Predict the 3D structure of the following.
Amino acid sequence: MAVLEANQIKKQYQMGEVTVNALDEVSLAVNKGEFVAIMGPSGSGKSTLLHLLGGLDGPSDGEITLAGQPLSRLSDNAITVVRRRKVGFIFQFYNLLPTLTAEENIGLPLLIDGQSLDRHREKIEKLLTLVGLSDRKHHKPDQLSGGQQQRVAIARAFVNDPEIVLADEPTGNLDSKSGNAILELLRQTCTELGATIAMVTHDPRAASFADRVVFLKDGRIVRELKNETAGHNVQPIMDVMAGLEM
């Protein structure tokens, strides 16, 4: 069952008198419990696609269906509610509020949705345990390492029990050891929690943790690869990249 579907998506930008086709008839489905990596070089349209999939921007043409809701039929306010309650986001630069503790940053989506944190203490504690930060819950971002901050961001992405988590280069700002730990954690959430993840990356090592890799080039999907050895073998992805001259 597809949690997220993009059907013939186009996205055009006007730069002066020039029309730029950022995405050109892209169709993609992400099924429940699946970890999908969207790979492509800089300028391939992968971040644009992720923003459209999460309802942060609208396509020039085509339809995106998120958690069973065709976004083109919804008002801006309704899209905001769907995004807030059905989608978790993980960004490259963490986007934590510096004045809040780890625990408070994790609970922030609940507060924004008008919910009481006291009702969700147990859930937040479970997420802190999952990401290995139970002993850091009262620390603010400047008291945490980059890898720890990204762990907080991951816990925050899951606090509203989202239908899908969208991750934009989640290891792009981390050293290789911290990045690997974050990828293993994302893999774990799929395996143990049945989470659904779509992750944008240019890094074949990061993509190797996914169940399926979608290759984007010049605004089009040019290849897909079923990854049978998630997290263990980067070579098949490297081979496809070489064949596509990426």
Summary: The domain at 2-95+162-244 is CATH 3.40.50.300 (Rossmann fold). The helical segments are 46-53, 76-86, 102-112, 121-130, 146-158, 176-193, 204-207, 235-244. The chain is about 35% helix and 30% strand.
